[in-house]
Amino acid sequence: MTTPADTSGAGMPAGSVPLTSVPQDAPVDRATAAARRVVEALLLTDRANANLERVAEELNGIAEHLEQHAPAVRDRMVDMWGGEGVTRHDPVTGLENAIALPLIVYGLPDGSVRGETTVTIPYQGPPGCVHGGVSALLLDHTLGVANMWAGRDGMTAQLNVRYHRPTPLFEPLQINGRQESVDGRKIRTTGDIRTAEGEVCVSVEGLFVDKKVPRPR
Ligand SMILES: CCCCCCCC(=O)SCCNC(=O)CCNC(=O)[C@H](O)C(C)(C)COP(=O)(O)OP(=O)(O)OC[C@H]1O[C@@H](n2cnc3c(N)ncnc32)[C@H](O)[C@@H]1OP(=O)(O)O
Prior knowledge:
The protein is of the alpha+beta class. The chain contains 4 helices and 7 strands; from the N terminus they run E-H-H-H-E-E-H-E-E-E-E.
C-alpha cells in the first residue's frame, strides 16, 4: 500500500508492457496517494498522540467536502466504466482507489503477467505477514489480467488457494499469473506470489467462465 508504484518496468523482461493503470500527474492520483499514506500513518502513530481528536475532525471535514462534490452513485459508476479495458478504481491496481496497493501488472512477452510490490501494515494478517485474503485478492485480480493479456477473459468461478509459507510484509514480492488453457467457455489460469529469492508463498489455480456483467450506461 505504501511503496510508490514503480512504473518503469525495471526488473521486468525486455518487451514487457503495463496492462493496468499507471500513475498520472493528476490531483486525484495525488489525493488518493495521500489517503493511503493517512491509512498507514493512522496504524503507525502513537496511540497516545494527543492530537487524534483533531485528526478525526479534520479527516471528517475532508470526507464531507468530497461527499458534497459527489455526483449520484449511478452517474459516477457510468463515468468509472466509461473507458476501455484498464480501470482506475479497482481494489488492486486502481490508482484512484485508496485501498488498492496499487499494483501495476505487466504483460510479459512469454504470455504471462507479473507485478512487483511490497505489502505493508494495512494488509497484515499474522504478525509481520500478509493477510491470506489479501493474497487471494491480489492473485484473483492478477489472474484476471493474465486472461486479458491472453485474449480470453471471464469471471472467477473458482479460486483454489494454497498457502505454502507465510508471505512477508516489508519485502519485495512478485505476483505472477498465466493462462493455461481454454475449453469452450472455461478458462484455467494459474498464479503465485513469490519472494525476491523465488520462494513460493501462495499458489492458485483459477477457473474462469467467459461471461460479462454489462457496464453501467
Ligand atoms: C482486468 C480485470 C481483472 C478482474 C478480475 C476480477 C475477477 C472477479 O473478481 S470476478 C467476480 C467474482 N466472480 C463472480 O462473481 C462470479 C459469480 N458467478 C457467476 O456469475 C456464474 O456462476 C459463472 C460466471 C461462474 C458461471 O456462469 P454461467 O453462465 O452460469 O455458467 P454455466 O453455463 O453454468 O457453466 C459453464 C461451464 O462452467 C462450469 N462452471 C460454472 N461455474 C462453475 C464452478 N463454480 N465450478 C466449476 N465449474 C463451473 C459449468 O459446469 C459449465 O461447464 P460445461 O460447459 O463443461 O458444462
